[in-house]
Design brief:
This protein is of the alpha/beta class and 209 residues long. The chain has seven helices and eight strands.
Length: 209
């Protein structure tokens, strides 16, 4: 990935050199999601609060070479069950952010024949990492670009990787899997247990027993 000319990485790099997690972020990541602290450190997750007192999780996107190429801000106060037309959106992206494949630096740690998991969204990626898997994430089917997957396809061939995915239990998740399968024919499908809408649900069902 190459940074977009209008994205000023230098403006945001300082936030991730020493990430800071506020109370809302720690509650979301550790109490609600039960993520491994080592994963949160690896992903350099940080947080901030806006002028209205809203809490945001700051998610950096890095290229395989370790350069910051984009930032995704997740609204920790957003609730799909209580929509408010006057509320801040669920996600915000700084101008020029290139948020394609998430967690590309993990590719540098892959060994020959090792499995690599592809998640839909950062949350599932964090859960897969916390469960001990090496994983990357696709933001969504609508943001998927064929050229984003060329690196996975070539790496899969050169290292004889096995590619795996737990598609979300909904129509968009099925569409994403089928689209990925066209571009990555060796992608292996794993079915979620009944009652789990995504891998994060499945992960929580195991760690909270």
């Amino acid at each position: 990935l190459t940074p977009h000319p209008s994205f000023d990485a230098r403006r945001y790099e300082c936030f991730f050199e020493r990430p800071w997690l506020g109370e809302a972020a720690r509650r979301f990541l550790f109490e609600e999601r039960h993520l491994d602290e080592r994963v949160v450190r690896w992903c350099r997750l940080s947080s901030w609060r806006d002028r209205r007192g809203g809490d945001w999780l700051q998610i950096p996107y890095y290229g395989r070479d370790g350069r910051l190429v984009g930032v995704q801000n997740r609204n920790l106060d957003w609730d799909a069950r209580s929509p408010d037309t006057g509320a801040a959106p669920r996600f915000r992206f700084p101008r020029g952010s290139e948020c394609g494949i998430y967690n590309l630096p993990v590719l540098n740690r892959l060994r020959e024949g090792e499995p690599l998991y592809i998640a839909e969204g950062c949350s599932d990626c964090w859960s897969l990492l916390s469960a001990g898997h090496k994983a990357v994430a696709i933001p969504s089917a609508t943001l998927l670009k064929p050229q984003d997957l060329e690196v996975l396809s070539s790496l899969s061939s050169s290292l004889s990787l096995s590619l795996h995915m737990f598609p979300d239990s909904d129509e968009p998740g099925e569409r994403l899997f089928l689209k990925l399968k066209e571009l990555l024919p060796n992608l292996i499908r794993h079915s979620l247990p009944q009652g789990c809408k995504d891998y994060s649900d499945y992960y929580l069902s195991k760690v909270t027993l």
